[in-house]
Amino acid sequence: MTSNDIIPHLFRTEYGKLVAVLTKTFGIEHIxxxxxxxxxxxxxxxxxxxxxGKPENPTAWLYTVAKNKVKNYFIRNNLFKIKVTEKIKATExxxxxxxxxxxxxxxxxSQLKMLFTVCHPSISVEAQIxxxxxxxxxxxxxxxxxxxxxxxxxxxxxxxxxxxxxxSEKIEIDLPNHKQIDKRLDAVLHIIYLLFSExxxxxxxxxxxxxxxxxxxxxxxxxxxxxxxxxxxSTNALMSLMCFHSSRLDAxxxxxxxxxxxxxxxxxxxxxxxIEKGFYYLQQASKWEITSKYYLExxxxxxxxxxxxxxxxxxxxxxLYEALLSVDNxxxxxxxxxxxxxxVQGNLAxxxxxxxxxxxxxxxxxxxxxxxxxxxxxxxAVENFHKAFKLCKTDTEKEMIKMQIQKLIKSRPHNRxxx
Length: 419
Description:
Blueprint: H1 3-26, H2 31-52, H3 58-77, H4 79-83, H5 85-91, H6 104-118, H7 125-136, H8 141-147, H9 152-168, H10 181-200, H11 211-225, H12 233-246, H13 272-285, H14 293-303, H15 313-325, H16 331-345, H17 347-357, H18 363-373, H19 378-391, H20 395-410
């Protein structure tokens, strides 16, 4: 790997580590200093490596430069003496003797604590996701604003308000105590799943699949699995779910960016390594004698990797959706259950149940009705596709529905043109 290739790679893997360790060492009030020092360290690498060659150990070089920049910063600004003196007195060390610990253990520990800090309930869910992407994943303002279909100024203000709230609340960079950790972990897992979901099926962006967001969500979950306190049933189940879903990312989108429905996907594009990882984490989650929402969803995702020739597939999926409805009675879960019902009991039985739901503002509802009516009533299938077309938000979804209508019309004699 050349200098030009390795620096972006290292930025993705090391930026968050630098920020987490430096912030944990000096306190949340210095998080912006930590971000600046991490950025300046990579800028120096960009300035020197292409001309002098990359160092023998690039990661160690980054850590050494970051340490030196920390010392220079505090000496130059005299902030060290003013704001960190107490830490020196407490340790009875002089500044030059303080060692910023970049050991693997401290990096892992710092990242985990930063994850709980940026997902603190004192700030909004949107701000928690932005901070996680900025501080732990190293995404820039442009990347975050693109992810949330916003602009850089809005994201910058959101990040500033979140940081100021963490300062004013004097939030410590630490893990919650034993009484709080289960509840706080649920909130962290929820943030990670929201991030993954935005990447897996973006309803706010014309690029339906945002693979980079899915990767960042997987990376955040790895932080949790690396610690005994947060390596729980739910964490393993969520990781399993995200691995199963990620295994089909390449098959879910055409070269033109159009979404490809499950039954039309090229199964040769499914990532078998991720499917195996999903199954591994599902087995890990099953070691706890409890069943969570994520576990049920991961089990459903597992069955979707099984071939249609398995006679137990759709019955198992239907049973799992019925169990999931008992803990998450959401419209999306209900619609997915109806689809599974059609596979087990036929389209007429599924239509009968679907029409009782009357989710008139949900375009997925009309897409499902259209799919169910395809083999039953041509006109109603087209009618429901048109209703879905009017309700969906993104150009990519509209294009997909338009193609479905055209395909349906072409399959019937005396076809007519879509307007």
